[in-house]
Write a structure and sequence with these properties.
The protein has 310 residues and is of the alpha/beta class. It contains twelve helices and 15 strands. It is globular.
């Protein structure tokens, strides 16, 4: 099949493209940066320049490619870190999840694309009440922290748009990425914060996070290109983890000192409500649907083994 990967130069795109090529697909990969064209070509794809926020640019790129499948991996997450100003930090990605998604879907419809696979997120958008692990059928947060609401609505938009479009729309809610090229890797931003003791456990550290190794995420995405009914899938590992459990272990794995502990009131002053929420209240996600319906097998079933490789 002919597959159009929007965002092929990103962290996930660089792991996805070679998998699609190995499976015999013809891949067209996009980037905004002329410097990344050779990198994408080296992965085995045809590289094209495209601005996801420019409808004409998107329409021309997809019109020329004439793909059967479009994969939406457009984000702008490099250098994220100011949780207190969460929505401001995610502003560019929010635009790609709203206007960028609409541009891709409009162009896809114009050329008769059959399947559309879109990136979403499994974690803080989950409802923060009830049990510690949520499925795709559970509601999302009815009242997210004020400084996360624009980001929350952008995630809602990409999910609604992809699953209601007149094609096969699949949404992959990825867990927190770790592994090569991510912020949770040796030399990554989170590892450096731990080494500087700037990534503390807040309160009881009761927030539950779901992780996924970047290669497992790419494998799930390649499977979603080829199979699976339209709908939403959590792409996470087998073991949702409390902050109080995974953070000291991650520090140990990257050679950092044990993380500090800070009270909720202090964290609220420094990191705002969103920072407190992700450390103390968020819920994890179940991967049962993706494993069953996509036939997804994880190479890293648990962050415990995966973090050791860091």
């Amino acid at each position: 099949m002919r597959v159009f990967v929007a965002g092929a130069g990103g962290t996930l795109g660089r792991r996805l493209v070679p998998r699609l090529v190995e499976r015999g697909h013809e891949v067209v990969g996009t980037t905004r940066s002329p410097d990344k064209r050779r990198d994408i070509e080296a992965l085995g794809a045809e590289a094209v320049l495209m601005d996801g926020l420019d409808a004409a640019s998107v329409g021309e790129a997809i019109g020329r490619a004439e793909p059967e499948i479009v994969v939406h991996e457009l984000t702008a997450l490099a250098g994220m870190g100011d949780v207190r100003n969460f929505d401001r930090e995610f502003a560019a990605t929010n635009e790609l999840r709203t206007r960028g998604t609409d541009n891709l879907l409009t162009a896809a419809a114009a050329v008769g694309v059959r399947r559309f696979v879109a990136q979403s997120y499994a974690g803080w958008p989950n409802e923060r009440t009830g049990g510690p692990v949520k499925t795709e059928d559970d509601p999302l947060d009815a009242n997210p922290p004020r400084n996360q609401r624009r980001s929350f609505e952008a995630i809602r938009h990409v999910e609604r748009a992809a699953t209601s479009a007149p094609l096969e729309g699949l949404v992959l809610r990825y867990g927190g990425f770790y592994g090569p090229g991510t912020s949770i890797a040796d030399g990554g931003a989170h590892a450096e914060l731990l080494r500087q003791r700037k990534f503390p456990i807040v309160g009881d550290g009761g927030g539950v996070w779901s992780f996924v190794h970047i290669d497992d995420a790419a494998e799930a995405t390649a499977l979603a290109v080829e199979r699976g009914a339209p709908g939403i899938y959590n792409v996470v590992d087998d073991e949702p983890a409390r902050v109080a459990d995974f953070l000291p272990y991650l520090a140990q794995c990257v050679g950092a000192p044990p993380p500090r502990r800070v009270p909720v009131w202090l964290a609220r002053l420094v990191a705002g409500e969103a920072g407190v929420s992700v450390m103390t209240q968020v819920r994890g996600s179940s991967n049962a649907k993706a494993k069953c319906e996509l036939g997804w097998e994880l190479r890293h079933p648990s962050w415990r083994e995966g973090f050791r490789e860091l």
